[in-house]
What we know:
Blueprint: H1 12-17, E1 19-20, E2 25-26, H2 31-45, E3 49-56, H3 65-73, E4 81-84, E5 90-96, H4 100-117, E6 122-129, H5 136-153, E7 158-160, E8 170-177, H6 181-193, E9 199-206, H7 209-214, E10 224-229, H8 237-245, E11 253-259, H9 264-272, E12 277-280, H10 285-299
Protein name: Response regulator receiver domain-containing protein
InterPro entries: Bact_response_regulator, CheY-like_superfamily, Sig_transdc_resp-reg_receiver
Keywords: Phosphoprotein
Amino acid sequence: MSMATPSTSAPSSLLSLLFNEETGLYHSDLFPSFVQWKLADMPRIRTKFTIAEIEICNISELPAQPRVSKQIASHFRNTDYLFATEKPHRFMALLMHTGVLEAEYLFQRIYSDFQSSSAVQLTAGMTEVVYSTTTYEDILDATSVALTLAQDKGPYQLKAVPVATLPDVSTIKVSIIEDSLIAQSILTNMLQNLQVDHTEFDIRIFDDGASFAESDWHHSGHMHLIFLSDTLPQRDGIEVLRDLRSMPNASKYVIIMLGSRKTEHMTIYSMEHGADYYIAKPFSIKLLEARVKRLLERLK
C-alpha cells in the first residue's frame, strides 16, 4: 500500500521510519501531529476530514493484528492514514477530504471484506471535522463516545458523533473606494456594526480609483466586497469596474456601485458593466445593510 506523506515539520526520512510496511500503520506518536497539521491547513484548503477509531472486537484474534491492520489499510486511498495506538486492538484512521457519508461507504466495504474472509470482528466510531476551531481533545472525545455507542451494539457497527465546536469565522476583504470622507465614515461604521454570523470584515479605504488599482490589496483569493463610487479622481468608478470584471478571478468581487445620479440609465449602465447593485447617493443605511446581508448570505 502506498501511503502519502504530509507536509509536516518532521523530515520525510523520519516519517518513513515511523511507518510500518508490514502492518500498514503509522506510529501512534504521529497521530496528534497529523491531526494538528490538518486542522491548521483547513482555513487554506477549506475541506473537511473524518477521524475514526477502529477496534478489534474479539480479542482472541489479537495475534492476527498485523494482518488485520494491513487489510483495513488496503481499502484506504493514498491520502488516508491508519495509526497504531497504545492499545494493540485499536487503530485511529484519518480520512482526508472525507465526510461521514463517504466514510460510511468505506466502512461498509471494509466490514464486508472481513465478514467474508476473516474471523476477526470489527467495530468503529467516527467524527467529521468541519471547522479549524476544533481541538484535538474535542476530536478524541467525540470518537471515544462514538466507539462506545458502536460497542454497545456489537460487531460491525459504525456510529458517528459530531464534534462540539464553533464554526470558523470567515474573513471578507472590503474596499471602500470613495473620495467623500463622510461616505467613508458612514460605510465603515455600518460594516463595523453589521451583525453577520461567523463573518468579520477586513476594511481598507481608497480615496481614488488609481490608488486601488495600483495596490496589491485585492490580489488574493479572498472573497472581496467593494463599495465603488462612480465619480472618482484620476480613474472613475466605471473604469475600475471594467478592470475588475476583466480579471480571471472576477467572480470573487462583489461590487456595490454608489452612484451620483438616481436614473434608470445609470443603474442599467453600471449593472451591464458588472456591478452587482447600484445604489444612488444619498443612500439609506438600512437599505444598504439589507443588501449587504443578502449578498453575504448568497455567497455562503
